[in-house]
Design a protein that fits this description.
172 residues; mainly alpha; Ferritin; 78% helix
């Protein structure tokens, strides 16, 4: 009996590594969101409800779908650079800067929601905004698409920076 599907014909070692890197990139970024959500969950139904918020604050149901899409876009962006598997310092720096901004992303949730520090959250989100811009710049030579995929993330974090600033002004 003739075999119609021969896996070796379609999937080689390089393709398998590429698929694995893609999946790990997405999981890495979604994991940052999951970790951040643990801190958010502590306060979103208690402390956060009690503080004054600006009129431009979106309804709570918006955050999960927006962040989910952003984390997937971030994962694709990371993958587009990581898949190049280069052995240069610039390549290693690009991946390091991305991981740093991802850690700042988690840190913002930890500080703002976990520690309930509006001022601390403001400091972290300013650093995060700068780190995203740096990541976009450092990714650009490797992949324009990777850089541009981070633009919605930068816009959303910019919006969050405005909200965080306004909340700080309202709550001191």
């Amino acid at each position: 009996m003739r075999q119609f599907f021969q896996p070796r014909q379609y999937l080689n070692r390089t393709t398998g590594i590429t698929i694995l890197r893609f999946m790990l990139s997405i999981v890495l970024c979604l994991s940052a969101g999951i970790i951040g959500s643990f801190f958010t969950a502590q306060s979103v139904d208690s402390w956060y409800l009690l503080i004054q918020k600006p009129p431009i604050t979106p309804p709570g149901w918006v955050f999960a779908p927006v962040w989910s899409v952003l984390y997937v876009l971030m994962g694709i962006s990371f993958f587009l650079v990581w898949r190049q598997n280069l052995q240069s310092r610039a390549y290693r720096d690009a991946l390091t800067v991305f991981i740093f901004q991802l850690l700042l992303n988690i840190l913002w949730s930890m500080v703002f929601f976990g520690f309930r520090s509006i001022a601390g959250g403001l400091v972290v989100i300013v650093l995060l905004s700068g780190a995203i811009i740096r990541t976009m710049k450092i990714f650009f030579p490797f992949s324009r698409a990777a850089s541009l995929l981070l633009l919605p993330y930068l816009i959303w974090v910019g919006y969050a920076l405005v909200l965080n600033s306004w909340i700080f002004m309202l709550n001191g």
